[in-house]
Amino acid sequence: MPTTFHQKPNLFIQNVTLKVSNLSRSIDFYTEIIGFRVLQQEEGRVTLTADGQHALITLVEVPNAQFVRGATGLYHFALLLPSRKDLGNLIQHFIQKNVQIGAGDHDVSEALYLSDPDGNGIEMYIDRPADTWKWDSNGQVYMTTDPVQFQSVLREADGTWSGLPIDTVMGHIHLSVRNLQESEDFYTSLLDYAVVSRYGGQALFISTGGYHHHIGLNTWHSEGAEALPKDAVGIQSYTVQLPDQDYAVNLKKRFVEQNMEIKEQENIFSIIEPNGIEVKFTI
């Protein structure tokens, strides 16, 4: 089962839609390297799943796609694995596939980092038990970046990697934004996220329900940047799960009060957040 941080009433990320330049190549990567299964495929579009029911990633092919640096958009999306054994099995899988990765022990979590063929950032991680996270009196959680103890993780592996575990969820998303204060105001004033960690004046992490972060925001390579062009590879949208219909109605009222355009679809509505990214909401 998903962690309670990724269940209602928390505002957790359900799905991320990415624009890619070569759909066939990306399907191969996401199935063979990352371990997804194809849930549904049509011309120029595929949805990927870990459990065979819920789409975690949607890939959309963009003809003659641009590769743009320095725009706002995706820093990385992060897949949360159920256990340290799963992380160990994943490391073994990456070794067998000769996949280059980065890594970081963030105290609250242990994480691996890599990129897809179009340069979209990916984190795959496990959480340490929530009762071991260190919170200060101001509601800020301690996070750092230390080396991952690979031998310790690998000792817990059992060599049974056969793709993403069915309980894998979208743990969080990390965005490159143009103005940190502007983004903080949007996500905390309109969407009820709380700031739980700050990295100087260039990055912050927000969550609901006492998670270490459902969304990361930074200006490391994007301060003052323009939004990602529509024909560029990168993030197209992401979907936030809302608690219930009443919450959805009240959220729409907030957007209307801010003169934000709301796009209605069946069981989903969306807006464009300050960095040009479409945010979809569903109950």
TrEMBL record:
SUPFAM superfamilies documented for this protein: Glyoxalase/Bleomycin resistance protein/Dihydroxybiphenyl dioxygenase
The entry's keywords: Aromatic hydrocarbons catabolism, Dioxygenase, Iron, Metal-binding, Oxidoreductase
Record-annotated VOC domain positions: 12-127
One Pfam family matching this protein: Glyoxalase
Domain of life: Bacteria
PROSITE patterns per record: EXTRADIOL_DIOXYGENAS, VOC
Cofactors demanded by this protein: Fe(2+)
InterPro entries: Glyas_Bleomycin-R_OHBP_Dase, Glyas_Fos-R_dOase_dom, VOC_core, Xdiol_ring_cleave_dOase_1/2
Record flagged with keyword Signal: no
PANTHER family: CATECHOL-2,3-DIOXYGENASE
Record family assignment: Belongs to the extradiol ring-cleavage dioxygenase family.
Listed name of the protein: VOC family protein
Protein species of origin: Kurthia gibsonii
Lineage: Bacteria, Bacillati, Bacillota, Bacilli, Bacillales
